[in-house]
Every structure is written in structure tokens, then in C-alpha cells.
Amino acid sequence: MRRWxxxxxxxxxWVALVYVFFLAFVTLVSLTDPALxxxxxxxxxxxxxxxxxxxxxxxxxxxxxLPWCQPLRWLDPPGPATALVSFPGSGNxxxxxxxxxxxxxxxxxxxxxxxxxxxxxxAESVSNGSVVVVKxxxxxxxxxxxxxxxxxxxxxxxxxxxxxxxxxxxxxxGHAQPDKYTRDGGRxxxxxxxxxxxxxxxxxxDWLKFEGPLHLVFYEDLLDNLPEEMRRxxxxxxxxxxxSNFDCMVRHQDGIYKRRRRPLNFDPFTAKLRALVDRCRRxxxxxxxxxxxxxxxxLVVNNMNYANVSKENHNPGDR
Length: 319
Description:
The structure is a single chain. With 319 residues, the chain is of the alpha/beta class. It folds into two domains: 12-40; 42-303, 3-Layer(aba) Sandwich (Rossmann fold). The chain is built from 14 helices and seven strands. The strands form two sheets. The protein has a five-stranded parallel beta sheet, with helices on both faces. Helix 4 (92-103) packs antiparallel against helix 12 (243-251) and helix 9 runs parallel beside helix 13 (271-292). It is globular. The termini are far apart.
């Protein structure tokens, strides 16, 4: 019996050692890849799309293979650092994909998501002007001052919160199982909605105060009229694209990270939760209307009395 336990302990040690070496190897490769560590090189290296993406790999065999419209490359010379900001679950990754398809330029991120890095977004963790936009869900003056301009994507809070719940429970294109909503007698879901509703409000209100050029995009408008909304984004980014590349983007607009709809057969939002989400949405709507009317958004936001809605005015650090 003792000899058997020694064998198990020895095997476990070897497995742990191999795992540590594997992590070290992956980290070393990502840090020494010249395409990702020298984004400001004089001769920006053009990295061709890695073959084609297969919907079958991620979606159980449904759909066709989707090629890139053009090889991806760095912005050379670099442009202004541009934030692509949103609350999680609002279509940030989708917009990144559309911009890469239309412009042929990498999009970056303040994060380093290895799943995204290996599946179409190799410039993860690059957050400067060598990429067309930089993904972020963070807010606050320290984050805003990093960027020269920003594209703010806003989605209806009910849809955004549920999309983020699906992502945390089922991955980038998965869904939360119904029993997730009733976990701990529903307290887990209630806490999640409360936290995320406040984060949705704070993220949006904070970036509406951005002092540089700001382009506001509504996720629902992208769904209803993708070509027109994308042309406006491209114009804001000073990106001229050929009609052939633009048409290619429209034809392949779904990408591989657009979650398919799976309606629930019940309403997970209680009356109490709806009252909170509606309150947050009204405050954001007021600030958005002020912005669209050309008013002083900072003054409006700073004078808002939403202390009774959010007792914590800090960045929760959500991804």
C-alpha cells in the first residue's frame, strides 16, 4: 500500500512539473513573438490571417468556414490611441472583429484573453496607437486619460447584463443554464444583477464625460442598420476602406463570437431588480440626451443625484 501511494505522489509531481513548464513555454512564446512585442517597428510586419476560421469548431458543426477579408497588419505610422469602451456583454468583441475585417488593422485590448488571442485577435494586450482601437471595460479618470479619443458602445442594460451572465457561466458564445438563475435561492443572480446594473451605469456615465473626441454607438442600432453605423464609426476613426472590403465585412458580419439567441421560458428579473435597472437606465438616458443635444454632459453627470442608486462609486474591475 505504501509503495502504491509513493507511485501516486511521484506521478502527481511529474504532472505538476510538466504543467509548470507548459505555462512557462506559452508565456515565453507570447512575450518573444516579434509581431506582438514590436508594434512600432518602422516596417510593420503584415501577418496573414491564420487560415480560415471554422464555425464548426465552436458551434457544433453548424455554419461555413469564414475567411478574413484581408491580411491583418499594424497601423504604421501609429495613430491616436483609441478606446473601444463598453460594459461587458455589449458587443465590444463583435465591433473589434468588424473593424478588423473592414480596415485590415489589428484591434488591441487592455486585457490579455488567450482565447481571443488564439482565435482572431493576436494583438490582445496591445493598447497603443499601433492598433485601430483598444478594447476596455474599465472606467475612471486614470483610464480615460490614457486615450486620445473613444468609441463608446452602449447596449440596453437588461440585454447586456444577461449577456455577461451567459459569458461568465458558459463562455464567449455559451449560455447560462436555467438553474444558474435560482442558485442559492436566487440570491446569486440578484447580487449579480445589482452589481452589474450599477457597473453598467457608472461605466457609461463616466465615459460620457470623456474630454476628447467621443463617438457614441448603440448596439441595437448596429443590429438594425450595420452598414450605416459602421460607416459612421470608420469615419470617426479616419479610416478609408475600399467598397470591396466593406462589402466583405457586411457579408461576414457574424464572426465566431456572436452568441446565438436562446430565450428563457421565464423572466429572471424580479420587480425589485427591474426597479433598480430602470433607475440606472433613466439616469444614463438623461446624460445621453444631454450629449446629443450638445450640452455639458460633465455638468449634468456631476449634478446627478444617484447616491441612492449606487453607494459605491468605484470601478469594480469587471472584464
